[in-house]
Amino acid sequence: MKNIDVCLTPDLLHLHKIDNAIVVVADVFRATSCMVTAFAHSVSCIVPVATVEECRALQERGYLAAAERNAMKVDGFDLDNSPFSYMESWMENTKVAMTTTNGTLAITKSRSAVKVLVGSFLNLGAIAHYLQSQPYDVIVLCAGWKGRPNMEDTLFAGALIERLKENYMIAEDSAIMAWRLYNQGKGDLLSYLANSSHIRRLQRLGISKDIAYCLQHDLYDVVPVLRGNTLVNMEI
Q1: Percentage above 70 pLDDT, the chain
Q2: Which residue spans within 49-206 are E strands per DSSP?
Q3: Is residue 235 part of a domain?
Q4: Angstrom distance (rounded) from CA 234 to CA 236
Q5: Which EC number(s) does UniProt give (predicted)?
Q6: With CB atoms counted within 10 Å of each terminal CB, which end of the chain scores lower, N or C?
């Protein structure tokens, strides 16, 4: 039977064998939620990069550029890290370059996997449906915060395991912990996360609406996948 495992932070990814697995990267607050929202609103592609310098170079080549550090927009870039910024009709068919504190770094670290998918609560059902038909093991890579685990990405991992528990073996403790955590909090994720570090960080910036939005389940039927260095919306 196929296995599903959870890597709680990119700093632990070297402990996992990913070259014969599908990696699902989750940065719920807010990078992967932005990416899913962007594809749902018909952005053509997104190039995730690890550094501000790489993002600026793509901006100079004509990409719309989004750069975030410490939950705030970097000066001189076109877009911030709020999913509401990716809903504008004028963004249809545009190409976006993106760098964030945690999420894009997690994606770039995963490139040796069989496939790299972008996951969030917003496209949870679409990701689960796609994975049910795949022959590979799955590793959910939680972007965390600067090398440390966080609650929201771990809860996403548990939610995906809950959807896939009939199709995959839950073999390792990190996956069991994530699954149990989600089942404890799934009745009211917003309250369950109330004292978590990233929610407190975002609330200090006055963007509570992003938090509530990113915790909604199954809004979009999109599956972003990394093709080379570029994310596109998979045809499913």
Answers
A1: 100
A2: 64-69, 72-73, 95-99, 115-119, 137-142, 168-170
A3: no
A4: 6
A5: 3.1.3.71
A6: N
Q: DSSP label at 74?
A: P
pLDDT at 81 over 80: yes
Cα–Cα distance measured from residue 35 to residue 194, given in angstroms and rounded to the nearest whole number = 24
Q: What's the pLDDT at 208?
A: 83
| Under 8 Å between Cβ of 118 and 35 | yes
State how far the alpha carbon of 169 is from the alpha carbons of 121, 139, 180, in Å: 21, 12, 15
d(CA 209, CA 157): 22
pLDDT at 201: 78
Q: Which residue range forms the structural domain that includes residue 136?
A: 2-227
Q: Kindly report the length of the chain.
A: 236
CA nearest to 82, candidates 202, 236, 184: 202
**Which CATH number goes with the domain that contains 155?**
3.90.1560.10
9-29 confidence digits (pLDDT tens): 999 999 999 999 999 999 999
pLDDT tens by residue, 95-119:
999 999 899 999 999 999 999 999 9
Answer whether residue 197 shows pLDDT above 90: no
Judge whether 39 lies within some domain.
Answer: yes
234 belongs to a structural domain: no
Question: In Å, how far are 25, 78, 111, 118, 206 from 2, measured between CA atoms?
Answer: 18, 42, 21, 20, 42
